[in-house]
Design goal:
- By secondary structure, this protein is an alpha+beta fold.
- It has two domains: 291 residues, 2-Layer Sandwich (BirA Bifunctional Protein, domain 2), CATH 3.30.930; 114 residues, Anticodon-binding domain (Rossmann fold, 3-Layer(aba) Sandwich), CATH 3.40.50.
- Helix content is 40%, strand content 20%.
- The chain has 18 helices and 18 strands.
- The strands form four sheets. It has an eight-stranded mixed sheet. A five-stranded mixed sheet has the order 15-14-16-17-18. The protein has a three-stranded antiparallel sheet with strand order 2-4-3.
- Helix 6 packs antiparallel against helix 7.
- The protein is elongated.
- GO terms for molecular function: ATP binding; histidine-tRNA ligase activity.
Length: 504
């Protein structure tokens, strides 16, 4: 009788889901440090923290994502047991609208909050584009004055400088959707009797304006006209605007002048008799005046008609923070780093829940992009110092080693005892290197009898190995010393201080 062959076990593949990523030690600690700097500024401006659910009803989230061709209009959604639809939040603003509408009777007005956390978008992933990423928002709900918008812009400027982006390496650009709507009206792309008329054409125009830095004026004019063929031969249908209509849009895009006042004056000419457009220009004038009074000149914050912002819920001022220094792309070509934050006024978002006008404005920082920018320019470390490693020489003296670890931790130092196989000291030191430990503590029976410990300065050892060429130089700078047990904490702290300071 033939033996049954043992059925092969099918094991799951150990791989990260498409469009997602794993965050390891330095990724997490550097992000946390940067977020502390950001939220310190938010707190200084009077914003309070809020943590809301990562899951919202699809009804509460609304339909505001630009990538509407994806399933569920760009969100990760599922049907609950009661047949209601739930989804992972795609940003931190839509949940704020729900929270404010739900708790408005117990919240101060205006309500100023900041929030930090991951968001999820069911979009096509690509290089540097993930389906999960972190945002850090600050919003003011309940005030119609554009003083709130100017404050957000000033705070964004202060935040970038606080995390290490100096003046000259960034600019906060400000525009107003009302001005853009006024220009659309002048160009004949608005029907006062039908809000949906020309919506398709307006969408193409807005996306084209948003691509001015990449496509240039010629490429944008092609997109708002008959269409555009790119370098690969792919053709994109245009908005079909006439030459006269296209001239109005292109004049709008080139309206920026040397000062906010001059830019606003030019925009006032372009929007003509449009009521919405003139209101938007007045709002930009007020923002420029308020920022100028606080010392935020065009070297930090400027009025720029090319700022559009993709989400559909913006109703007034919109702003974007762009890093202006050059980096090398994957092909070795120079390019500017680009946008790391954006936001604007969204006066209709809470109204969806309450039926009442509730003005709001805010900003969202792309945490992963800003962290990548700081790394790109060396303004944040690429690694984080690991713990001091207390090695294990004798199994029957584990309590002694744990006591050393406790002494180091109680002194505020990061420390751990090696918990692997204690027989191989080489393996223990290799582990210490992998953990990027600054110091290894060694105590065998002889040292214990003398009341001492050996301290191996791993940071110094690595530096010496790279720099010292002769045996005499090596002897003059020992990387391992024996110190009294009761001096353990002081000597370890001194070694770490020397490593941090770069001294020997």
């Amino acid at each position: 009788m033939a033996r049954n062959k043992k059925q092969k076990v099918r094991r799951p593949r150990a791989e990260t889901p498409k469009g997602f990523r794993d965050y390891f030690g330095a990724d997490v600690t550097e992000r946390a440090a940067m977020l502390r700097d950001i939220t310190d500024i938010y707190t200084r401006y009077g914003f309070d923290p809020l943590e809301s659910s990562a899951v919202e009803t699809v009804e509460a989230l609304g339909k505001f994502l630009p990538d509407v061709d994806r399933p569920n209009e760009g969100v990760f959604a599922w049907q609950d047991e009661d047949e209601s639809w739930m989804a992972l939040r795609y940003d931190l603003t839509a949940p704020l609208a729900r929270v404010y509408a739900q708790h408005r009777n117990s919240l101060p007005s205006p309500y100023r909050r900041y929030a930090v956390g991951p968001v999820w978008r069911n979009e096509k992933p690509g290089p540097g584009r993930y389906r999960q990423f972190y945002q850090c928002d600050a919003d003011t709900v309940g005030t119609p004055t554009v003083a709130a918008d100017s404050e957000i812009c000033a705070m964004l400027s202060d935040t970038l400088e606080a995390v290490g982006i100096p003046r000259g390496d960034y600019v906060v650009r400000v525009n107003n959707r009302k001005v853009l709507n006024g220009v659309m009206e002048v160009a004949g792309l608005v029907d006062p009797d039908d809000a949906d008329a020309f919506a398709h054409e307006r969408g193409i125009v807005m996306r084209a304006i948003d691509k001015i830095d990449r496509l240039g004026e010629e490429g944008v004019r092609a997109l708002i006209g008959a269409g555009r063929k790119d370098a690969s031969g792919d053709y994109t249908d245009g908005a079909g605007l006439s030459d006269e209509q296209a001239d109005i849009i292109m004049d709008f895009m080139s309206a920026r002048r040397d000062s906010g006042a001059a830019t606003c004056a030019r925009l006032g000419e372009l929007v003509g008799g449009s009521t919405a457009g003139q209101e938007g220009v007045r709002e930009l004038e007020t923002i420029a005046e308020l920022l100028d009074a606080q010392g935020y000149g065009p070297d930090r914050i400027l009025i720029d008609p090319s700022v559009v912002r993709g989400l559909g819920y913006y109703t007034g001022p919109v702003f974007e923070a762009e890093l202006t220094f050059d980096i090398l792309d994957e092909k070795g070509r120079k390019r500017q780093f680009g946008s790391v934050a954006g936001g604007g006024r969204y006066d209709d978002l809470v109204k969806r829940f309450t039926g009442q006008d509730v003005p709001a404005t805010g900003v969202s920082i792309g945490v992963d992009r800003l962290l990548a920018a700081l790394r790109e320019t060396g303004r944040i470390g690429s690694s984080v110092a690991g713990p001091v490693i207390v090695t294990v020489m004798d199994r029957d003296r584990m309590a002694d080693y744990q006591t050393m670890v406790a002494d180091l931790r109680n002194a505020g130092l990061r420390a751990e005892m090696y918990l692997g196989n204690p027989k191989d000291m080489g393996r223990q030191l290799k582990y210490a290197d992998q953990r990027e430990a600054p110091v290894a503590v060694i105590q065998g029976g002889d040292e214990a009898a003398r009341g001492t410990v050996q301290l191996k300065d791993l940071a110094l050892g690595a530096r010496l190995a790279a720099e010292i060429e002769t045996n005499e130089e090596w002897k003059a700078q020992p990387a391992q010393v024996e110190v009294p047990r009761d001096a353990l904490v002081a000597e370890v702290r001194a070694m770490i201080a020397r490593a941090d300071g770069g001294g020997v």
